[in-house]
């Protein structure tokens, strides 16, 4: 039988195949990138065993578990585990704490299928603790700079061109604004934190000790930034990205209308455009109080006309009306206030090419 594996760094740096034998409800609350859920017990079985443990103790709970997972059910699950082990000879299995569930899976795999699959010592809990420590250590040890700018300047595009860029919105699968929801939904907060931690781990393993990240609120949609990182972001120096109003309108039209509509249609098929339209109208309604009643009504009429024309002819030209008005009347005053408030921390400002060149040079000097 393989010895328990304790090199968590190796697991995440090398994207080792991971078999998570926790119940589906546990997996759905938070998991690791690429992990496959092949549980020892389903949710109902786990609940019954847990109740038995509370009422009658560990031995009775173990006996009940063996009764529930026996015969054809046991054979089916061993077959699934064996399929994973054969497909991934470099894979590992784990449960919540690296205890009884992963021991049983490992033993049954060996006894019934003749296969060895090493267990991760400490299980999910230890691996998660390692990743959260990874974030804390990066915040304490590395150099960070924030990328700010008005809505639509293309901050994410800049980040993705930098080897030391951290795409927080990418990890959260959300564009960060009231209009930022995507067709594919967001990860759980735990999944978001895990993705960010693995990104930091891999970049630091390549010698990167300087990071650029977008100036964000604590929450990106429903995903919250780790508190130490968010607290650090209140002091980090900033670089301010600039672009013309026309350039920003065009970028928002592409990202939030053309590309997002295509994404909805790809995910939802024939009803995709209807769902896209509902999402756009809901997003505008989300800022109704801050817009004020009259302005909200005016922009809503323009958006409804734009969606109707897009649905009829496919043209998106009419959308420019509400996009430009929303920028000039709503977003720009907020960002202008933020720029003034954070002005002392801004060490460079310029358009895309100049900002990328500055950040690359900054990274070389500090990396």
UniProtKB/TrEMBL annotation:
Biological processes, Gene Ontology terms: tRNA wobble uridine modification
Reaction equation(s) it catalyzes: 5-methylaminomethyl-2-thiouridine(34) in tRNA + (2E)-geranyl diphosphate = 5-methylaminomethyl-S-(2E)-geranyl-thiouridine(34) in tRNA + diphosphate; 5-methylaminomethyl-2-thiouridine(34) in tRNA + selenophosphate + (2E)-geranyl diphosphate + H2O + H(+) = 5-methylaminomethyl-2-selenouridine(34) in tRNA + (2E)-thiogeraniol + phosphate + diphosphate; 5-methylaminomethyl-S-(2E)-geranyl-thiouridine(34) in tRNA + selenophosphate + H(+) = 5-methylaminomethyl-2-(Se-phospho)selenouridine(34) in tRNA + (2E)-thiogeraniol; 5-methylaminomethyl-2-(Se-phospho)selenouridine(34) in tRNA + H2O = 5-methylaminomethyl-2-selenouridine(34) in tRNA + phosphate
Domain Rhodanese residues, every copy: 12-136
UniProt cross-references to Pfam families, sorted A to Z: AAA_SelU
Gene3D superfamilies: Rhodanese-like domain
CDD domains for this protein: RHOD_YbbB
Residues at the active site: 95 (s-selanylcysteine intermediate)
Keywords: Selenium, Transferase
Example of a GO MF term: tRNA 2-selenouridine synthase activity
E.C. no: 2.9.1.3
Family from the record: Belongs to the SelU family.
Protein's job: Involved in the post-transcriptional modification of the uridine at the wobble position (U34) of tRNA(Lys), tRNA(Glu) and tRNA(Gln). Catalyzes the conversion of 2-thiouridine (S2U-RNA) to 2-selenouridine (Se2U-RNA). Acts in a two-step process involving geranylation of 2-thiouridine (S2U) to S-geranyl-2-thiouridine (geS2U) and subsequent selenation of the latter derivative to 2-selenouridine (Se2U) in the tRNA chain.
Subunit structure and binding partners: Monomer.
Protein name: tRNA 2-selenouridine synthase
Organism listed in the record: Pseudomonas fluorescens
